[in-house]
Amino acid sequence: MPPGPWKLPIIGNLHQLIGVSMYHHKFTNLAKRHGPIVHLQICEISAVLISSPELAEHVLRTNELNFAQRPQLLDEDIIPYKGSSLIFCPYNDYWKHIRRITMSDLLGAKRIQTFKFVREAEVRNLVETIYGSSANVSINLSDQFYTLSNNIITRSVLGNKSNYQEEFRNALDHEMTKFVNLNF
């Protein structure tokens, strides 16, 4: 394994990452101290940090199949459809088949084009919201873009804008937070 910072038993380098709000700064400092390839142990997960774009491209190209698999972080009973969805399915022939269907039927050029009017209308609403806000009021663009994405997806899936957008967004935030917490 490449060099890395000192580790504690059981938790490895986890204690060095807790409380860090901007991981890219922490990873940059680790790369300066230990080189362009750094080994991190996060509990039982062994991770390699590659900080050079050229080196990352080389490693990913030569070891593509090794990196194509996702680590199984959750129990199959928690994952919808016993891990057979595109997101959780291991990289194999079934995954390739599901991806092909997704790309052609759900995310194909013709399908994307059918929702162009939704995207245009929602972007127009966003621009009007930003333009119409007071010059003295700051706008959280992250929230605005999150709402934009949510509105586009909701209108594309359900056919129109829901009266319960805020409630839906809060429920989605809650579920995403629970899901992310399960991974760590």
UniProtKB/TrEMBL annotation:
GO molecular function terms listed in the Swiss-Prot or TrEMBL record: heme binding; iron ion binding; monooxygenase activity; oxidoreductase activity, acting on paired donors, with incorporation or reduction of molecular oxygen
Family: Belongs to the cytochrome P450 family.
GO biological process: secondary metabolite biosynthetic process
Alphabetical list of InterPro entries matching this protein: Cyt_P450, Cyt_P450_sf
Organism encoding this protein: Heracleum sosnowskyi
Keywords recorded for this protein, A-Z: Endoplasmic reticulum, Heme, Iron, Metal-binding, Microsome, Monooxygenase, Oxidoreductase
Membrane protein topology class: Single-pass membrane protein
Principal location listed in the UniProt entry: membrane
Keyword Iron: yes
Protein name: Premnaspirodiene oxygenase-like
Pfam families referenced in this protein's UniProt entry, alphabetically: p450 (PF00067)
Key word Endoplasmic reticulum present: yes
Localization annotation: Microsome membrane
